[in-house]
User: Fold these one by one.
Assistant:
Number 1:
Amino acid sequence: MTNSNLKILKDLNPSQKQAVLNLSGPSLIIAGAGAGKTKTLTYKVINLIANKIEPSSIVVLTFTNKAALEMKDRIQKLLKTKNLPFIGTFHGFALKILRVEAKNLGYKKNFSIFDEGESITLVKKAINNLNLANFRNSANSVYKKISFYKNKGVDNENYLPASLKDIYLEYEKLLLEHNAFDFDNLILKTLEILKKYPEILKKYQKKYSYFLIDEFQDTNSPQYQLIKLLASKNKNITVVGDDWQSIYGFRSADYRILLNFQKDWPQAKIFFLEQNYRSTQNILDASYSVISKNIFRTDKKLFTTNGKGELIKVLKFKDEREEALWIKEQIIKKLKSGKSLNDFAILFRTNVQSRVFEDLLISEKIPYQLIGAFKFYQRKEIQDIVSYLRYIYNPNDKISLERIINIPKRKIGESTIKILKDNDWNFEVLKNKPVFKQLENFNFLIRKLESASRELPMSSFLTFIIDSLNYKNYLDITTEEGLERWQNIKELIGIAYNFDRFSPKEGFENFLESISLLQEADNFDKNANKLTLMTLHSAKGLEFPIIFIPGVEESLIPHEKSLYNQENLEEERRLFYVGMTRAKQELYLTYAEERFLNGEYRHNEPSRFLDEIDENLKENFDITEVELDYEQKIEYF
DNA sequence: AGAAGATAGCTTTTT
DNA sequence: GCTATCTTCT
């Protein structure tokens, strides 16, 4: 063991240290909320490298790109080396293999990755091809169902409900025709290749000998199958997770994979990380008294040296407006006593709940950030330009072609597009029509852009496209909307600058890859002096000194769609647990007697989860009888 | 090609 | 009851 390595170990508690020192063989690290999961994983990677394990043979898998970036940062700082392991998402890792091996399944190497929107368009096409009139308006839900089944990891389409099977098969056929993968197929097709070609499997088993997986409780079956296969030779697989925090069952994540880990890997060593560094003892005890009502779980008891802290505050309001007003007042009061806006987060079960807070915060001019609201890459103007890139890169991508052929307007109308669609986009069929001139011009433009793609660095190439299209003019920046869209385009160019260090060809490929996989610009900025609003789901992995959870009511949390099913109910409880354990110092749980929801006033009972908190850990307040004085002018901002 | 009319869906969300 | 999306009308 090296000296630098010893120095690092001093930062760890005994159980973390044991987990980090255990280098080879299967290992399961069950870690509670705030117990230093990611830190332990990061240090284990560093320890592996310190023990002369070749970085390129190590694969670290995280739940999001953002988590991957953060870990990369941490490792780079501690190691001061450029030679890093693969650190990324399952999808990113699968893509790395597919770039080399997709040809085995009949894909060309310039394949595309279809995002959700493009995939839905393709499902629509499948439905039209099959003439299934009663599915005409349900491409969205059909796509979601297909995706759910794919993620279950059932590799036989006969398991699909009969009504979906035909659409599924047609959709898969279309994907191949478009030379494209949807998100799910990145994983599934990689798995298929490794199963089908033993020599390819061997190659990657040799190449990658250490696997470490974060947030293992939210892994789904195909993802696990993929890593299980690759790790089966060397058996160096480390997983870190907390079954109590598994909250993505609705998209086929399965925490039982974590609970069954020892069955699959009988030699596995188990480590429990139970010391919490985040919250007060009261918050830990209160959240434990809730989560302990779940039957399907491991048992562990978290502790902290942080002291008892304040009691959990449970408050009752007349309606959601009063609830929001009170929370806002409370925040302002605390700001005056020295807290700052980024000490607070308001966490809710459903996105619609953010509305009442947004209205209030806007009128009071309180700066806030709403996480997961508008998605940069789903904006029309971004998709327009990205579709040009995709079509230039992969001419089989007719979904992108259809999107751009008349943007900006070039007099290629609906009827023309219909004819082209019916003829596999063969422009020649319109040879004798006046519109053919327009089509030829379009082809000429694409050829011009394509040759530019081979010569220019990424940001210049992008600027060249935008100029050639006269896109700024098309957006009409004299309108407020147009100006905002133009600013988004400039942001896209800004992102492209990061790819200028590559050759034109590589830069283009990497840029496309990164905007396909990095859907959400990570818009949460913990340093911004803003109040944070987000769903309980997006709060996973984060922490704040003071947490408000509004709407702690039956039919919100637990959500009404999960009330009558034990499995779903337990997931709701875990979700609530995740919310509670985000708090470092203070936790406010609020509910209203009446709430405007789905167009009607509804009366909800207080959530059963409130009853599950031990009486001696909470204080109840009834604010329905108190006259609130909201008129006082706030001069704070 | 854009506006008006019709209809579905309405929990959570990353890739 | 609101909104996003698709269809049909002008």
Number 2:
Amino acid sequence: MPNSTIKLQNMRMKDLIEKELMNWIMDGRLDKGQRLREDELAEIFGVSRIPVREALHVLELKGLVEVTPYIGATVRQLSSSEVKQVYLMRCLLEPLAAEHAAELITKKELNNLKRIQEELECLCCVEHNPENRRMVYDKNRDFHMAIYNASKMDILVNLINNLWDNIAFLRIRSAYSPDYPEMMKREHRDYIHLLSVHDGKTLSKVLRENLEQHAKFFQVI
Amino acid sequence: MPNSTIKLQNMRMKDLIEKELMNWIMDGRLDKGQRLREDELAEIFGVSRIPVREALHVLELKGLVEVTPYIGATVRQLSSSEVKQVYLMRCLLEPLAAEHAAELITKKELNNLKRIQEELECLCCVEHNPENRRMVYDKNRDFHMAIYNASKMDILVNLINNLWDNIAFLRIRSAYSPDYPEMMKREHRDYIHLLSVHDGKTLSKVLRENLEQHAKFFQVI
DNA sequence: CCGGATTTGTTCGTATGTATG
DNA sequence: CCATACATACGAACAAATCCG
């Protein structure tokens, strides 16, 4: 009898359900305002209501679900004003993490970053279709988080992750411009270069400028 | 039969327990590393484990409690490196909120702010003792949040609130320098003036400088 | 390496609050 | 305004995982 391929140690139903619901929200299977009933989800996942309930409450605190006591839970997606706020925060926080990362990044972390970038470029070579769009999103996110994690500022990185979660639905669904992959590739190679020469000041400046550009793009949608 | 003095509408046990535990952590009744067992707390509060459990999970996401699956929950207090991170984030985020607040603040909100400041100065008149230290903290926090709320940037304000929660234990317990009340009074009057003339740029600059000062103070402790 | 004690994770049943007729 | 329907909030018991001897 073979063992399970996936190590479920310390993985509670609650966590699995949370991740699954997040996927559903991100890829559009659940739309804004969609009602999330505990019973219904419990039946779908084949568990009782409690782990569903806990997952919903976690997602509420993360800003992806709105829970009203005794009424119920609905999918929450940020309004355009709220998305703007998230971008303003990202423009301040991500350059901060990147600046520290440039000081502290190790050879090993830099190599890991280069490996992620190679994988990302592979994904971008093939045509952009809905199937690999999610993979590009995930890999791009890995790339950015690999930079921020090098700052060793765990609290800050955790917060940045939350901000990304909040706008994930937007970034995965919105149409990429045709030159998006090329632009991303150029930006990322800049980041890698600036990190390798430990130029935190320039990195933080470039990153902020790029983020401001991206923010503008999402504002017109 | 008289009605309850406190309106408990939409106030779940979970929320009450969460607030109470936060108070315990803030005023030092619970120390770092203190074990928080669900059934023990359930007995203390006279409820079942479920609301206690949910409160603990909320506090985990807010950064005040550490929960390890199948092991348990302990009180978490930020290390000095983590406190530093929080101050770096506050130095970026609070000036941002304040700048927008200066543009958008209404006469009514400004009057409310002045009223809070009067109450705060009253509290500061009497000698600083442990009993009113907490009240001074709360009122000062009300003052700052009244400013940030005027920005109407709810996501940002919520995040700032979380940051304050994370370092509350430090600010309430640490010794005030004798001239702290006078310094705070001066700073606050500056803020009120700059808000009333809608000078967001200067406000954000002054606020950041003050925050950097405060950060230095807590770093030596 | 294994078994008991302990604590959390989950299930199911009941109570309570909300909204609609 | 009250009754009913519905979904969540809570309580008690069982199952699973961890730790220690």
